[in-house]
């Protein structure tokens, strides 16, 4: 059953991330932006001439090393689990991006938003993508089978430093992508993928995760937590 929940959450998370990216790119001039981690990794990937697959994979694995420092031990099983997550996740990010951009014959792709109605729809779709991400995080954090390194970071911060508070931990976990975004801006001199949707993600994604903990798959509980010695101990 854990595998089922994991696969479902992986699909939801990938689709949500790409929805935020694509809807942002389809509004001109762009003001919408994508989810915070997504924006930072996509920007740094562009700066380093990596496609989304390699950007998400490489940067994700660097975060897994940060997690090892925070937990206080180098757990090869945990890092390998992050890698297991990142490979299909990064591949699905690329697949969903190609799908929403119309690179497959079964779907022509999302068109550019040229009317106020379309712009409003894309804003809602972008926010929905953020909600999908927050919901997916809740599911696979509770399953705790294998985690995305960024969400592993959020879980470590949540239960080691912030007494289970999802929203506060989410905000603290945004420090690494902020550094990534600054590096990307220095390299490219461009500020892209950040906007209204990014602000929504920053303010609400953690709260969505906390809400989903209670309301989505209610029988699923946090388990097998390993965050190192808690600072209150």
Q: TL;DR of this structure?
A:
With 233 residues, this protein is an all-alpha fold. The protein is 70% helix and 0% strand.
Considering the chains and any ligands shown, give keywords for the structure.
single chain, about 230 residues, mainly alpha, 9 helices, about 0% strand
Please give the share of residues in helix. Answer: 55-70%
Question: The biggest beta sheet, please?
Answer: none
Radius of gyration: 17 Å
Query: What form results from the Cα inertia axes?
Result: globular
Task: Write the H/E string, N to C.
Answer: HHHHHHHHH
> In percent, how much strand structure appears in the residues?
under 5%
User: How many helices?
Assistant: 9
Q: What is the average per-residue confidence, as pLDDT, rounded to a whole number?
A: 86
Query: What is the end-to-end distance?
Result: 34 Å
Instruction: Report the structural category.
Output: mainly alpha
β-strand number: 0
Structure report:
The protein has 233 residues and is mainly alpha-helical. The protein is 70% helix and 0% strand. The relative contact order is 0.20. The mean pLDDT is 86.
Could you give the topology of this structure?
Layout: H1 2-25, H2 36-47, H3 52-71, H4 76-100, H5 116-143, H6 149-160, H7 166-172, H8 175-188, H9 196-215
């Amino acid at each position: 059953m854990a595998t089922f929940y994991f696969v479902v959450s992986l699909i939801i998370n990938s689709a949500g991330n790409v929805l935020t990216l694509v809807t942002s790119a389809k509004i001109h001039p762009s003001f919408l932006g994508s989810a915070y981690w997504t924006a930072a990794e996509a920007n740094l990937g562009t700066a380093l001439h990596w496609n989304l697959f390699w950007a998400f994979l490489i940067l994700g694995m660097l975060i897994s090393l940060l997690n090892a420092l925070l937990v206080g031990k180098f757990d090869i099983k945990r890092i390998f689990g992050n890698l297991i997550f990142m490979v299909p996740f990064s591949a699905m990010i690329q697949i969903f991006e190609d799908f929403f951009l119309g690179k497959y014959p079964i779907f022509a792709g999302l068109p550019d938003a040229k009317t106020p109605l379309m712009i409003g729809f894309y804003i809602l779709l972008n926010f929905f993508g953020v909600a999908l991400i927050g919901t997916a995080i809740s599911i696979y954090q509770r399953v705790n089978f294998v985690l995305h390194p960024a969400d592993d970071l959020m879980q470590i911060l949540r239960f080691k430093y912030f007494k289970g508070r999802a929203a506060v931990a989410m905000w603290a976990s945004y420090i690494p992508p902020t550094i990534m975004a600054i590096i990307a801006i220095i390299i490219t001199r461009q500020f892209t993928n950040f906007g209204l949707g990014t602000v929504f993600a920053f303010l609400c994604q953690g709260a969505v995760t906390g809400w989903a903990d209670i309301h989505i798959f209610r029988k699923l509980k946090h388990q097998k937590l390993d965050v190192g010695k808690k600072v209150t101990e």
